[in-house]
Amino acid sequence: MFEEDKNPEKIYYTIGEVAAMFDLNVSNVRYWENEFNILMPKKNAKGDRFFTKKDIGNIRIIKELIKERGYTIEGAKIKLRENRDELQERMKMVNSLENVKSFLVQLKSQLENNPAEKSIASVQQEAHDAQQSVITFIAPEQPE
Asked: How many domains does the chain have?
């Protein structure tokens, strides 16, 4: 689960927090800000950068293209221009799958560590919650 998912009321993230979220150097985040016009963090009078959740989503896409898929900076720019909506949807699906995986790993760990303490009702409720997460992932609600 990503850091921004854990703190829903947080509006802005510092460049250090963003770099840590994605296991990047701060200089790498600054460089991408200069290269990609979709990254537009707010800056205070001192010049400190404050990234929004939208910026973080865009960094996630950029990292996927450059670090995971091996695109060059120019290739990533072209891909973003051509298929930005498709890339955003793909990243939402990946994030949903990571959340489901995290939940299932946690559930497995709890069952292995405390099998006698789990009631059938609580296991059924957790299984129902997991099922709802998967259903939401497979068939998300479409805006009207």
From this structure: 1
- Start-end of H helices in the chain: 3-6, 15-21, 26-35, 53-63, 73-113, 120-138
CA distance 64 to 88: 11
For a pLDDT cut of 90, what percent of the chain falls above it?
Answer: 40
Q: What is the side-by-side order of every strand in the sheet holding 42-43?
A: 13-14, 49-51, 42-43
Residue tagged 């489901």 (tokens): 100
* Assigned domain for 36 exists: yes
Q: Is residue 69 included in any domain, yes or no?
A: yes
- pTM, two decimal places: 0.60
Asked if the structure places residue 22 within a domain, the reply is yes
Could you tell me the CATH number of the domain that includes residue 79?
A: 1.10.1660.10
| pLDDT tens-digit map of 35-78 | 999 999 999 999 999 999 989 989 998 998 999 889 999 999 99
Range of the domain at 128: 3-138
Residue with tokens 């072209």: 78
Identify the three-state secondary structure at position 43: strand
**Is 144 within a domain?**
no
